[in-house]
Every structure is written in structure tokens, then in C-alpha cells.
Amino acid sequence: MGGEEEYHSCLCRWSAHSLWGHKAWLKKETEIIARKETEMKKEAGKFSKDLMVMNPDDNVAVCLRELKAGEEVNLSYNDKEHRIKIIAPIPLGHKVALKEVTKGQPIVKYGQIIGKAKSDITIGQHVHVHNVSDY
Questions:
Q1: Which CATH architecture has domain 51-133?
Q2: CA-to-CA distance for 42 and 56, rounded, in angstroms?
């Protein structure tokens, strides 16, 4: 083989190798994008238009708007859908209980203990200085 035939043979081998390399690269990039999309969906699941959960271990959420007594809000966190009925009005930026908390148990926000319950707290109840003490 020589001249033009050798050039075409080499070009075909290079093209096949390049195409295989491109396919492998594309597969890897697709996997990275899929993983990032999954992570983003999990993060987005911590938010709703009403509430935000900072950490999967939290037992309170932050109100993103004023919530009215009797109102029901939906929230996805820890891979589950939750419907929370608000017990009493809760101002913007204050906390609402996501779980039952008995007197003396820790209140957890940002994955950290921020205080202890002064009394039993029910799901949907306003969590603030009136029912939380320093730890």
C-alpha cells in the first residue's frame, strides 16, 4: 500500500478511533448531566412556593410567605410528599413543625440543634421563641 490508499486506510482507522472516543466521551458527559439533574431535582424537592427545608434531618421548615391558619401546604423532602395543615398563622421567615416534637426534644434546622421544645409541638404548628428554649 502506498500513497492515497495508505492515507485513506490511516484516515479510516483514525476516524473509527476518533468516533469511538467521541462516543465514550458523550456517554460520560450524558451520565454526568443525568447525575446533576437528579441532584438538582432532589434539591428542588426541598422547596415549595410556601416552605423550604434546609437539611434532610430538619424537623422544621422556613415559611417563604405568611401562612394562614387552616391552610394546607405541600412539600417534597426526603423523597416523600408531605401535606401540612397550618395550625395558627405563621409569619414569613418563621418556622413550622414538619414532625411531632415532644417537650425537651431538639429543634433541628440546617441539620443543627437550634433549641429544645418548651412544650409538645405538633405538625403544622408555629415554632418560635414561645415554644423553643435555648439548648
A1: Roll (2.30)
A2: 11
